[in-house]
Each structure stands twice: as C-alpha cells, then as structure tokens.
TrEMBL record, chain A:
Annotated GO MF terms: oxidoreductase activity
All copies of domain Transketolase-like pyrimidine-binding, residue ranges: 4-178
Required co-factors: thiamine diphosphate
Native source organism of the sequence: Cohnella luojiensis
Spans through the membrane: none
Alphabetically ordered keywords of this record: Oxidoreductase, Thiamine pyrophosphate
InterPro entries xref list: THDP-binding, Transketo_C/PFOR_II, Transketolase-like_Pyr-bd, Transketolase_C
Protein name: Alpha-ketoacid dehydrogenase subunit beta
Pfam families reported for this sequence: Transket_pyr, Transketolase_C
C-alpha cells in the first residue's frame, strides 16, 4: 500500500496493464514525452515508442486507429490531450465504437479506452476546461467512468482496459495532484457500474462525481458542525448509472442535491433527477435540486470569471443548507 | 523480359482457373445486384444500393489479397468484393431481406457489411469512418509482427472526409501496411466528380508521402496488378499505397434516387458500353479460357445460385423483435 496521487494512480494502472498484457498500448499527442499533463511520464522509456505511440495531431484518427486495432485483438488506450479537443473524434466514438458490437450482431467488438482529461483547473479558459461528458452520456454501447480518488482511478483504469466494450475514462485534471490516497500495490479493479458511498448521513444526500465529490465531502464536514448530516454518493461510473445505489442514497434522506461541473441543462444530473422522480417520488421530502455551473458555453479565462463559474465549497454548502432547511 | 507465349493474366501470376473464378464472381455480383433491384421494385424490400459498374475492380482487388488473412474494410457498394473474399449470395440475400439469419441479424441497411470469419470489418453509413480503422488494423499487424495488410475502399465523394486525410497521414508517417482504394464512380449521389473533388484524388497520396496509382477500374488485370504491387510494398515495410480506380456508377445512387434529374440517358448508355465484365469476358474468350458453352454453364450456375438464394431469403423468418435488446454490451450475450 502506498499513497499515490490521482495522476500517479492513472499511470500505475496503465503501466501495470501494459506489463500484464502485450496487447495494451497507449497512443495520443505527445504521450512519448509523458503527455502535456504528465500522465504517461516515463512510460516510453519502459515500454518503448511503439507502445507509447506519439500520434499526429488528429483526434479522429487517434480514436479511429484505436478502434481498428481493438477490433483485431489489441487493447488500446487512446489519450485525448484535453477533453475540449474530443469533438473531432465524436463521430468515431458515437457512430463507430458505441455501435460496433450492436450493428454486427455481436460478431465484432471494440475494447478501447479513451482517456479524457476534463474540468477547470485555474486558467484553462473555454478550451482547456470543459466537461463534455453529457455529450456522450445516453449513448448506449459506451461506458463512461469518472473516478474521484486515486484508488478508484487505478482500479477503474484497469477495469476499463479489461472491459470488452468501449470505455470513456474521464479524469478530472484538478484531481491529478490535489487528490492522493492509499492505493494497493497488488492487482485490483474497481467494477464499472458501481457507485460508492463516501459518507453516511441522515439529513440530505449529495450525488456527485469527479472533483465535485471532494467539494461535497468538505462541505459535508463543515455542515456537520451546524448539525446537518450529509450522505455523499460518488457515482464513479456515469454510464451505465448505478441505479440501485442512487435509489438507496435517495431513500436514506429523501432530500437530494446533485452536483457536477458540467452544465446544468442536459447534464447527468438531469437524468438522475428523472430516474429518482420516476421511481421514488413519494419518498422525497423536498424537490430534487441540482447545483451546477450556469448554462454559458464554457468557463472564462479571467480568475474572476472562473471563480464565478465553478461550484466551490462555500457555494455548494449554501445549496446544501438550503435543501436541508426546505 | 517479355514472355509472349503467356497470356497477360499468366504473366501477372494468375492461373486460368483463377481468372475464370474472377469472371464468375463478377457475374454473380451483377446478377445478385439486378435481382436485388427487382426485389425492391416488387415491393418486397425497402431499399437497395447497387454496385453495377464497379464489380470488375472489386473482384480484381480481392484476388490480389489473401482471404481470411488480410483485412477487408469495404464501403457500401462492395458486393463483389465481399463475395470474392468469402460471403455467399445467400448471405447477401439474407441481408437484403433483413432476415434473422443474416450475419448482422437484420440490423444493418443492405450493403453494410461485416463478417469476422472472413475478416470483413463491420461498417456504418457515415462515410469513410472505416479508413482510420484500416490504419489501426495495419498498425496492429506491425505491432504483432504479422505479415498482413488492411485493404479499405471508399468513394470519391467520401474522399473529402477528414477521416480519409487523417488516416492517410497517420499511415504515411508510420509506413503502415494499408491499401487505400478509391472507387471513383464519378458521382456522389447527384454531384459529378468535377464538382465534388478539387484536383485528382490520386495526387493526394503525394501530399502524404506515399505513391498514388490511377487505374482503369474496368480493366481487371490492371487493377489486380496495382493491388498486388501495393500489397508487396506494404509487406516489405514500404508503407501504404493509394489506388484510384476509375469507373462509372451505372445505376442511380440507390433505389430511392432518380438519376435523370442530374445526368442524361446517353451518358449512362455510353458507360454501359465500357462495362468491365464484358471486356473481361472478351479477354477470356481471346485467350481461350472461356467459350460459348462454358460461358452458358457459368451463367446458368450463377442464375441458379441467385434464384435459390432469393427464394431462401424470402422465406426465412425476420429477427425476433426482442432480439433488438441484445448485444449492446458484452454482458447482454456478447463475447
């Protein structure tokens, strides 16, 4: 057991899978030098330039080539440099990867992992900060994971590589160095499709993923002093959603707040709210609330604009208090 | 050194039996296609998209490649290609009729191929997405040190998609064993090539650092030679080749298209005269591989196969409605 940062845990997950299986390889822009965000640092020295493959600046080819390789037995991990640049590959992800098993009646399948560094980190502006998970959410055939801890980052990375279907692996850039926790040295996976209760509480339930989980935990800690007991559920997998975990967390308090950094309209919170309303409306003691950035195209570059845009512990705490008092 | 006693196909390394088989496959694709069009016109199926005029190049290319070894990434008109690498007319008819026994379970539009056993890689309707897949398959072959190539086709309209250019560049950089064949049939639905493509497609290869070859798509032996050479190049690590096969789409874009809105009957008639199957037939007569009697029996065999396939597929049951829920993920009954 060692304390690893979230970023180190991702790297450890990739390296261990490459060690275990010759078919696993990484491809993306600048991954050889370690990637612009250092996720693949040192991996080229260890595995060689073929298995840590620097690609041209061509997101559709990065994903399309990975799909081709995956269909003939490889296990590629494609890195999109910033989530904001995933859109040229969207046709390959939605029209191809997601539909290969289905359209071929299970004759072909496509075990790729697409790593997508997302989220605002301070000074990223509109195009180095986005959370595009809702663009892919609701695409049957895809799986989407979004770990919040180092433990989950490694375990979900390994589970994604071993999964026989395409997985979008959303890694929050603010978690990279800010989050560290105990990560076992021995082989383990975190199952795709399972949420985790991060904190038990009785008054309100916060459902979150990625960096928002940490905001919620911090806010919960502070609210405890005010006598508000908060239950926190970390989704970990966004697609398919762990519905039974959502139902349990809902039944626990009857007051639900969903928080994410992706836009409010059409975000994953909307689907969670709908699922709860469909199944557990009469167990609710208050309206379902969502706490998300405003519906503007993306976060502004100036510090004041970014601070205003992003949820933080104080603003989240306020929303949680409001729900508790309803 | 010329070897005048050998026929042209023998000089290229093709046996008499192989060229006869090529001719048979061209005819099979043509007769399948004509029947599938009739079936659509009779109201039994909703849609057919034809390959008439493109069979020669498709069959010739397939014969220059290795079945169940190389990978094939066809586009939606490649009936003759998939027949040449292992699919049967019955299987094509099952796909036409969207029956449950179809390899794709009746899910895909006709002309959307995929058959793992035959290394025919599953395809979709957004055009040219298969090009980067071919590059990825070629990359995997290099990584696994396997001597095989990926062969991918697309139309001249599709050649304008970003995926073609991204795929070319990627394959060019890493000198991957992939063969790109553009089936330039002169029309992207209603838009003629001169309004669809700036410059010549074959010249685009130079921009990505590999050779481009333009061939007469109605000349089976010329296409065969070009693909054969491209395959040899790929296998010796010299990288990709772009082949632009010139041909003409004889029918409308699909059964839902009226081509008389954008071209003339005279133009179509002129190109019917250039039919590659007919010229290959003449060639086979000239070199003594084919004669009237053999030709008649080949035609009869093909017609019998098409008739039986159509009858079988017509009677076959549709997929179970609930099968729509299967194979979204591996756990729904997948690998």
């Amino acid at each position: 057991m060692a304390i690893l940062t979230y970023l180190e845990a991702i790297r450890a997950g990739m390296s261990e899978e490459m060690q275990r299986d010759e078919g696993v390889f990484v491809l993306g822009e600048d991954v050889g030098k370690g990637g612009v965000l250092n996720a693949t640092k040192g991996m080229r020295d260890r595995f060689g330039e073929r298995r840590v493959l620097d690609t041209p600046l061509s997101e559709s080819a990065i994903v399309g080539v990975a799909i081709g390789a995956a269909m003939v037995g490889m296990r590629p991990i494609a890195e999109i440099q910033f989530a904001d640049f995933i859109f040229p590959a969207t046709n390959q992800i939605i029209s191809e990867a997601a539909k290969i098993r289905y359209r071929s009646n299970n004759d072909w399948f496509c075990p790729i992992v697409i790593r997508v560094p997302y989220g605002a980190t301070g000074g990223g502006g509109l195009y180095h900060s986005q959370c595009p998970e809702s663009v892919f959410f609701g695409t049957p055939g895809l799986k989407i994971v979004a770990p919040s801890t180092a433990y989950d980052a490694k375990g979900l990375l390994k589970a994604s590589v071993r999964d026989d279907d395409p997985v979008l692996y959303f890694e929050h850039k603010k978690c990279y160095l800010y989050i560290s926790d105990d990560v076992p040295d021995e082989d383990y996976t975190v199952p795709i499709g399972k949420a985790a209760v991060k904190r038990e509480g009785d008054d309100i339930t916060v459902i979150a993923y990625g960096m928002a989980v940490h905001l919620a935990l911090k806010a919960a800690e502070q609210l405890e002093k005010e006598g508000i007991s908060v239950h926190v559920l970390d989704l970990r997998t966004l697609h398919p959603l762990d519905q039974s975990a959502i139902f349990e967390a809902t039944a626990k308090t009857g007051r639900i707040l969903i928080v994410h950094e992706d836009n409010k309209t059409g975000g994953i919170g909307a689907e969670i709210a709908a699922i709860i309303a469909e199944h557990l409306l009469y167990q609710l003691d208050a309206p379902i609330l969502r706490f998300c950035p405003p519906d503007v195209p993306a976060v502004g570059m100036a510090p004041t604009l970014e601070k205003f845009f992003l949820p933080n512990v104080d603003t989240l705490k306020e929303a949680m208090r409001r729900l508790a008092e309803m | 050194m010329s070897t005048p006693h050998l026929a042209k196909h023998q000089q290229l390394g093709l046996t008499d039996a192989q060229v006869l088989s090529m001719y048979t496959l061209m005819l099979t694709a043509r007769k399948f296609d004509e029947r599938a069009t009739l079936i659509q016109r009779s109201g039994k199926t909703a849609f057919h998209i034809s390959s008439i005029g493109q069979e020669t190049a498709q069959v010739a290319a397939a014969f220059a490649l290795e079945k169940q070894h190389d990978y094939f990434l066809p586009y939606y008109r490649d009936y003759a290609l998939v027949l040449s690498v292992g699919m049967t007319v019955r299987e094509l008819m099952l796909a036409t009729f969207l029956k449950g026994e179809d390899i794709n379970g009746g899910r895909q539009m006709p002309g959307h191929f995929g058959y793992r056993k035959h290394h025919i890689v599953t395809g979709s309707s957004p055009v040219s997405t298969q090009v980067p897949h071919a590059v990825g398959i070629a990359l995997a072959a290099v990584m696994k040190q396997e001597d095989r190539v990926a062969f991918v086709t697309f139309g001249e309209g599709s050649s304008n998609q970003g995926d073609v250019h991204e795929g070319f560049n990627f394959a060019g950089i890493f000198k991957l064993p992939v063969i790109f064949m553009c089936e330039n049939n002169q029309y992207a639905i209603s838009i003629p090539a001169h309004r669809q493509v700036a410059g010549r497609i074959v010249d685009r290869a130079a921009g990505y650092g590999f050779p481009g070859v333009r061939v007469d798509g109605n000349d089976a032996l010329e296409v065969y030679g070009a693909v054969k050479e491209a395959r040899n190049r790929a296998l010796r690590g010299a990288g990709p080749t772009l082949i632009e096969a010139m041909m003409y789409r004889i029918p409308p874009h699909s059964t839902a298209d009226d081509d008389m809105q954008y071209r003339t009957r005279d133009e179509v008639e002129y190109h019917k005269e250039q039919d590659g199957i007919e010229s290959f037939r003449r060639y086979l007569f000239e070199c003594g591989v084919l004669n009237e009697e053999l030709d008649r029996s080949v035609n009869e065999d093909v017609m019998r196969e098409v008739n039986e396939a159509a009858k079988y597929a017509d009677k076959a049951p549709y997929p179970e409605p609930e099968s729509a829920l299967r194979h979204v993920y591996a756990k729904d009954g997948g690998a």
